[in-house]
Amino acid sequence: MPDTDPSVEDLLDVAVTALGGARRAGQHEMAVAVAQTIDKGEHLLVQAGTGTGKSLGYLVPAVRHAVLENEHVIVSTATLALQRQIMARDLPLVAKALEPHLPRPASIALLKGWHNYVCVHKVAGGYPEDDAQALFELGDHAGAVEHPASDAENLGAQVLRLREWADETSTGDRDDLVPGVTDRAWRQVSVASLECLGSKCPMLSECFPEKAKAASREADVVVTNHAMLGIAASGSPNVLPEHQVLVVDEAHELTDRVTAQATSELSVGVIENASRLARRHGGIPTTDLDTASQALAGVLVTLPEARFREGLPPAARDAVASVRDATRALLSVLKPEGGGQPQQDAGRKVAQATMLALYEVAERMSADPEDNRHTVLWCARSEDRRGNVSTRLYAAPLAVNGLIRTHLLAGRSGVLTSATLELGGSFDPIARAVGLEVQPAAAPVGPASIDDDAPAPPSSVPWHGLDVGSPFDYPKQGILYVARHLPPPGREPATEAQLDEIAELVTAAGGRTLGLFSSRRAATAAATAMRERLDLPILVQGDDQLPTLVQQFIADEPTCLFGTLSLWQGVDVPGSTCTLVIIDRIPFPRPDDPVQSARSDAVEKAGGNGFLAVSATHAALLLAQGAGRLIRTNDDRGVVAVLDPRLSTARYAPFLTRSLPDFWPTTDRSVALAALRRLTGSG
Q: What is the pTM for the complete model shown?
């Protein structure tokens, strides 16, 4: 007979045994803290190092609470890999293992954004077909050019395979399709939520996203992703089912994901696409919008690539306002009339959704500068493979802490976890970033001082920070080598001194190197130089798809893999394949990054330290993630080599090093080289 109130520690032991694992002190400490936090309705920031088994550390108390208290729990991840691990392995096993010990079985569900599911009505011909010419006309303006022409030649075959799969799938989930297809092909069988006909759809009972949404409303534990949290935080909380507990894994990425979701862009290509859809599916003239588009095009070519500190220049704001007014007029006549042909109504719905999105962006950007004081506005240009230059305007929130606090954490218990949450020895920077109140004694140096005016909760909900450590013995397993003798990095992608250092280190390691670089230029320059100097296989990001490169790196020990931001986080390469991790420079944000520079300026204006609050915090987080690629199991040994002397000499260096795993530190190159030779048997 099930225990009426089983302890979370007993349940964790049951789950770990079922998964074939062993008891870990840090995992138990985490599970107890999560359970207590949820029971009290408080918030918890918990740092759980690699090897802790943090997913079970929150899944067991989450399932226990959901079943015993009949409250709904949402678990969110940043990456698809972790989402798959939780939904396909960890959560089902935990639910099954705990079932005999709880009053009833726990139900689980997966929820993604609308466009991740196939639309059965579109597959059945309910929407007008997107002609190939229109797709190509979007060009870089709408991100349609994603692959070389060969992919476009295969578009028909991909869509045919998709239609066959749509008749067989039980989920309609794009990630269940193996092998996958290009975004362009997927667009032929999916719709965005604004394009959906909703209750008017004749195939509503077969709708995959509606089924997923309905299942999530009933489930005890729902697994979703940070993109969905970003939509909810941006003012659409109904995208998530009602819930009383939110667990955010990979929480170090939450603010960036919410910022990205809340960032808008405007270009001539986007306007032209909306105008074309209105004419084609709405049968209405778009003269005023076309005129406004031409006027905006004339203004865009005169704008600098820069952040607009005082809002859009007057000419640009007037041009965007004209786009806003024209779209507002068209929206009133684009509503599906009903009673017509299904394809016609669906086409008008697509046109209306595109026009509404354009209107909202134009309205946001054309607002009075005083109303836009918490919005970062800037202009950027990009060039496609054919040499065509596209100019875009962007708008992003200055801060998202208020959005997270108000729309994600208020009224519920929040558990945020990651291997890297404690920065500079404190949880305060992350706490501020997600809208949790930090004691005044900590001084206003973080994003709390650039709050986005979202109202604070009536009473502050207590939060706690907890580091449950790692089972790894970092001082004995790894060395942190800072190349103090090198000159500080400059504008060039790589100096000769850096290249010499890389060659010596890689040679001592016998290859087996993961190179983490601050830019694609730097990674390519280093790879090119090493291919000329060393008789070792050197892979560089861009040679192939990233998963393929990682598999090649794992399969052949002497192989080296060089790359940029994608490799800093989420790459898991245990064993001697990765004996050396090279970091070329401290990963500060670019000085001209519009959002980061705006946030830094705002902190300075509020009396804080903008560099420490924004740039150093950003760098500490990435450094910790990058250095964490080295030790993935108890048997791993190696060296993290940072080729930036500032990590040893700068006044902010202690803040950064306190954020890293507790490796044995040295600035002596001979010590690092000797250690690598011993590990690889080359000394």
A: 0.88
